[in-house]
């Protein structure tokens, strides 16, 4: 597996550097070179944000959408606004060093860093050689409570539920709990009975000709893959909407997917032990559209 690390000296968002100045703010470091101090708030507290972008045959998907979400996460955490041209150039620099065919993932990270030095910023690029059998085989999910009511994003913004923070320990613990229960993945639910999202994915639910996803004001991450897929699915004649989805609706769904930037659209074959029908033809077209 090829992994690249590009370290950034973050620029204030309101500066307009020349190309040369921009390039001088970033440098590749060896993948095993330490780039954080032990005092970095990202390492010590998970205090920071990230984005993961998918790439295919040299093209990165959704750069603007990911940079917008990075900026939205920074604002939620009171971190300095990212300089979007700097991050865009960094993505281009990393992509240029990766193989020009096949899949890859690009990860953007900003930690709060240290008081003395400020935020620590870097971009990694990794060529993906693994297959994704779950794109056709699907995944079995369990519903797990997130322990919050559906309106937590509005009532308790300090819980940062709509920001893509580095604090994914809970999400990873939920995935381990799913494995313990004999499943592969998770749909988080609210304490008042609504389906939210997966630990690393957005949720799509089909009933008849309508494909729904939980609205983001209800404390979930705004998914870039879900947004791209809604464009594709509307072109296929589906009606797409954002709304509250009751957990019971999962059991009555005609199809369910977990979708995200690298794994893409994964059909759900089982919810809490109950079989869910899958549409491999449509799933295949969704993934082909994302990869095109
Ligand atoms: N929701 C959560 C909690 C995630 O971590 C992710 C991606 O990692 C998503 C949704 C899907 O977002 P995207 O489609 O932009 O990758």
From TrEMBL:
<dbReference type="GO" id="GO:0008696">
    <property type="term" value="F:4-amino-4-deoxychorismate lyase activity"/>
</dbReference>
<dbReference type="GO" id="GO:0005829">
    <property type="term" value="C:cytosol"/>
</dbReference>
<dbReference type="InterPro" id="IPR001544">
    <property type="entry name" value="Aminotrans_IV"/>
</dbReference>
<dbReference type="GO" id="GO:0046394">
    <property type="term" value="P:carboxylic acid biosynthetic process"/>
</dbReference>
<protein>
    <submittedName>
        <fullName>Aminodeoxychorismate lyase</fullName>
        <ecNumber>4.1.3.38</ecNumber>
    </submittedName>
</protein>
<dbReference type="InterPro" id="IPR043132">
    <property type="entry name" value="BCAT-like_C"/>
</dbReference>
<comment type="similarity">
    <text>Belongs to the class-IV pyridoxal-phosphate-dependent aminotransferase family.</text>
</comment>
<dbReference type="InterPro" id="IPR050571">
    <property type="entry name" value="Class-IV_PLP-Dep_Aminotrnsfr"/>
</dbReference>
<dbReference type="InterPro" id="IPR036038">
    <property type="entry name" value="Aminotransferase-like"/>
</dbReference>
<dbReference type="InterPro" id="IPR043131">
    <property type="entry name" value="BCAT-like_N"/>
</dbReference>
<keyword id="KW-0456">Lyase</keyword>
<dbReference type="Pfam" id="PF01063">
    <property type="entry name" value="Aminotran_4"/>
</dbReference>
């Amino acid at each position: 597996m090829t992994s690249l690390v590009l370290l950034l000296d973050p620029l204030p968002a309101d500066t307009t550097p020349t190309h040369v100045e921009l390039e001088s703010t970033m440098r590749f470091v060896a993948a095993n070179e330490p780039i954080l101090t032990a005092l970095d708030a990202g390492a010590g507290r998970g205090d920071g944000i990230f984005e993961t972008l998918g790439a295919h045959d040299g093209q990165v998907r959704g750069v603007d959408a990911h940079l917008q979400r990075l900026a939205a996460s920074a604002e939620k955490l009171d971190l300095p606004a990212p300089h979007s041209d700097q991050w865009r150039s960094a993505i281009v620099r990393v992509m240029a060093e990766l193989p020009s065919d096949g899949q890859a993932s690009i990860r953007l990270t900003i930690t709060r860093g240290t008081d003395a030095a400020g935020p620590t910023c870097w971009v990694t690029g990794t060529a993906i050689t693994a297959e994704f059998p779950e794109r056709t085989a699907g995944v079995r999910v369990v519903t797990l409570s997130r322990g919050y009511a559906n309106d937590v994003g509005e009532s308790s913004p300090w819980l940062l539920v709509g920001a893509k923070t580095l604090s994914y320990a809970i999400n990873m613990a939920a995935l381990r709990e799913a494995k313990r229960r004999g499943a592969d993945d998770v749909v988080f639910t609210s304490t008042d009975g609504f389906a939210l999202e997966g630990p690393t994915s957005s949720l799509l639910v089909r009933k008849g000709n309508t494909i729904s996803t939980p609205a983001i004001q209800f404390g979930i991450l705004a998914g870039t893959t879900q947004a791209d897929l809604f464009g594709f699915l509307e072109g296929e004649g589906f009606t797409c909407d954002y709304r509250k989805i009751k957990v019971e609706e999962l059991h009555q769904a005609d199809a369910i997917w977990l979708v995200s930037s690298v794994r893409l659209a994964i059909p759900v074959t089982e919810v809490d032990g109950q079989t869910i029908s899958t549409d491999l033809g449509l799933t295949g077209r969704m993934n082909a559209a994302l990869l095109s």
